[in-house]
Design a protein that fits this description.
- By secondary structure, this protein is α/β, with parallel strands linked by helices.
- It folds into two domains: 9-145, Response regulator (Rossmann fold), CATH 3.40.50.2300; 151-211, Arc Repressor Mutant, subunit A (Orthogonal Bundle).
- It is built from eleven helices and six strands.
- Strands 2-1-3-4-5-6 form a six-stranded parallel beta sheet, with helices on both faces.
- Helix 5 (115-126) links the parallel strand 5 (107-110) and strand 6 (131-132).
- Helix 2 runs parallel beside helix 3, helix 8 (157-167) crosses helix 10 and helix 8 (157-167) crosses helix 11 (202-211).
- The longest helix is centred in the C-terminal third of the chain and has 15 residues, at 183-197.
- The protein is elongated, with a radius of gyration of 19 Å.
Length: 217
């Protein structure tokens, strides 16, 4: 990854809330950090990252429609495993944080963090160090002890894809057509997924999928 030749850290922000990004840009203004770009969509984030080559990307995990922040992270880290990304997350996104860490994420903060903590996360990410806000680290440690009950942990890849389509409100027949299999196959799989996750009402299925970042709210 191309690094800045100066001592200042070149930072790019990616979030679909202008007020949030504006606040972060002001918070990061300092003697060693420059905000060089701001993206309001995942598509813009990919384009600006390629154009600006920032030292650190501050990225909202859950934003976008066709693409999401997580898709941006997957693409960047697949091409550049050493890319420095500070992930913006929320307290109901345990499984997403675990996924970001799995694909190579290094720093995790919440949008309501103190300005000093955001700057510290950027500096640590720039140095290639792992950084979790204490509250996030505590949640993940608790999750590790209790066991991960997320759909991502309990379902295989195909079942997870079916579950996401169920959460979007598709019928068994529609899912079968989408995946080019029989309705009976989907009916059996759907029931097995419901039993495995312990959810049966459509509204509960949708809420679970949204909570774990499988579909957009």
């Amino acid at each position: 990854m191309k690094q800045s030749t100066a001592t200042r850290i070149r930072v790019m922000l990616a979030d679909d809330h202008p007020i949030v990004m504006g606040g972060f840009a002001m918070s990061l203004a300092g003697p060693d950090i420059d905000v060089v770009a701001q993206a309001r969509s995942p598509e813009e984030a990919l384009a600006l990252y390629a154009a600006e080559r920032p030292d650190v990307l501050v990225l909202d995990i859950r934003f976008g429609t066709q693409l999401t922040g997580l898709d941006v992270a997957r693409r960047l880290l697949a091409d550049e495993p050493q890319a420095r990304i500070v992930f913006l997350t929320q307290f109901d996104q345990d499984s997403l944080v675990k996924e970001c860490y799995r694909i190579g994420g290094r720093a995790f903060i919440t949008k309501d963090c103190d300005p000093e903590e955001l700057a510290a996360a950027v500096r640590r990410a720039y140095q290639g160090e792992l950084y979790f806000m204490p509250a996030i680290a505590e949640r993940l440690a608790s999750l590790s002890v209790k066991g991960d009950e997320s759909p991502q942990a309990l379902l295989d890849e195909r079942a997870l894809a079916i579950f996401a389509l169920m959460a979007e409100g598709l019928t068994n027949a529609e899912i079968a057509q989408r995946l080019d299999v029989s309705s009976k196959t989907i009916s059996n799989a759907s029931q097995a997924i419901k039993d495995r996750l312990g959810v049966h009402r459509p509204a509960d299925i949708t809420r679970l999928a949204v909570r774990h970042g499988l579909i957009q709210p």
